[in-house]
Design a protein that fits this description.
Blueprint: E1 7-13, E2 17-24, E3 27-35, H1 38-42, H2 51-64, E4 74-78, E5 89-91, H3 94-102, H4 111-124, E6 128-131, H5 159-172, E7 181-187, E8 191-197, E9 200-204, H6 224-231, H7 238-245, H8 250-255, H9 260-268, H10 272-295, E10 302-307, H11 313-323, E11 329-333, H12 337-349, E12 356-357
Parallel strand pairs: 1-4, 4-6, 5-12, 7-10, 10-11
Antiparallel strand pairs: 1-2, 2-3, 5-6, 7-8, 8-9
Helix pairs in contact: 2-4, 3-4, 5-12, 9-10, 10-11
Length: 361
């Protein structure tokens, strides 16, 4: 008997584009990126004001592709900057919509995902979900201690992709995710290294605001004393410092580009500085993986490398040769966010999981 197929619309809003997909269970039958002109976006004072405009462009794009929305079984949006929550698939409810609209933890285009999913689903009388937003927080109490009593370590990472690849690898090795231990490294514009133990990410670096290895766009951990001196030097405004740390840090700061392919070309052309910086980025990633392995006393089922940088064989090789003594290194390149959203909704539709309830408490 063939398993029942579920048709799911997934929505991933970015700053200047909206990625959408239609999945028949695990199989993508449509993936499309809707580009938004700057003039279209700039007409809205706040990000949250864009949701009707974006909803309209999504429905028009589906209509152009000949997709009948009445055949949908669920709509799943990218989770936004909500209150810290444990991982999983959440039904979109009033409390969530309120926090997304207010931008409880900040304004970001991803906040639109749950709102648009709810709006479309409500008109069709079908469920709407979000899956593993960046604010997933499953840190152990020990991992929260920073060493500076006025600052607690925060969990902000690539939860959607990290959780998705961890579940896939668990399935491949024939072990439930809830009983597995992985060190998952997402390597994109930011780099996060998460310790997945028995279905929870018990430690992870804050890939947004200065923690862990440097990346194509972010500075990562920098010497605190020197940073304080720079901040109070009188040479920079607060926003300038933040941009240098996030957006203009890492490869951008050293080499003027966030494109790893260009950096590899620079290296092939004999650029010694490019090679030193690129090797240092791999070196710092490997160090972070080594530190993460100490959390689970070196007992990991696998080390997983994912994200856009995982396509780079040389970069992956530089990391693997330093960490493969800990556990087997499994490479799952790309972000696959639309697939991850569809898989999260599907687990609920197939009653493999129960949708979690978001609370403002």
């Amino acid at each position: 008997m063939q398993d029942q197929q579920y048709r799911i619309l997934v929505i991933n809003p970015g700053s200047t584009s909206t990625k959408i997909g239609i999945f028949d269970s695990e199989t993508a039958i449509l993936e499309k990126t809707i580009r938004h002109e700057t003039a279209e976006i700039d007409q809205f004072e706040k990000i949250i004001d864009q949701y009707q405009f974006r909803k309209k462009t999504i429905l028009e794009a589906l209509d152009e592709e000949g997709m009948n929305v009445s055949k949908l079984d669920a709509v799943c949006g990218r989770g936004g900057l909500l209150r810290p929550i444990e991982g999983g698939t959440y039904s979109v409810n009033d409390a969530m919509l309120k926090d997304l609209r207010q931008g409880y933890s900040g304004q970001h285009a991803s906040n639109l995902g749950g709102i648009i999913a709810y709006e479309i689903a409500q008109g069709l009388n079908i469920p709407s979900f979000i899956v593993d937003p960046v604010v997933v927080d499953e840190l152990s109490d020990t991992a929260r201690v920073s060493g500076f009593s006025l600052i607690e370590r925060k969990s902000i990472f690539h939860a959607l992709n990290q959780k998705a690849v961890a579940r896939r690898v668990a399935k491949e090795i024939g072990k439930p995710y809830s009983e597995s231990t992985f060190i998952v490294t997402h390597m994109g514009g930011g780099i996060t290294v998460g310790v997945h133990h028995n279905g929870r990410v018990i430690d992870v670096n804050n890939g947004l605001h200065g923690d862990g290895p440097f990346s194509p766009e972010r500075a990562g951990t920098v010497p605190a004393g020197d940073l304080v001196e720079l901040c109070f030097s009188g040479d920079y405004y607060r926003d300038e410092i933040m941009k240098m740390l996030v957006g203009q840090g890492g490869l951008v700061g050293y080499l003027g580009t966030n494109d790893a392919v260009k950096v590899e070309q620079m290296i092939q052309n004999g650029d010694k500085k490019a090679k030193q910086v690129y090797d240092a980025m791999a070196y710092q990633v490997a160090k972070e993986i080594g530190a993460a392995s100490a959390v689970v006393k070196g007992k990991a089922d696998a080390i997983i490398l994912t994200g856009g940088l995982a396509y780079g064989k040389e970069f992956v090789g530089l990391i693997s040769e330093r960490v493969d003594w800990i556990a087997d290194v499994i490479v799952q390149p790309g972000e696959n966010e639309l697939q991850a959203l569809a898989e999260g909704a599907l687990r609920v539709l197939k009653n493999e999981e129960t949708a979690k309830v978001y609370s403002a408490q």
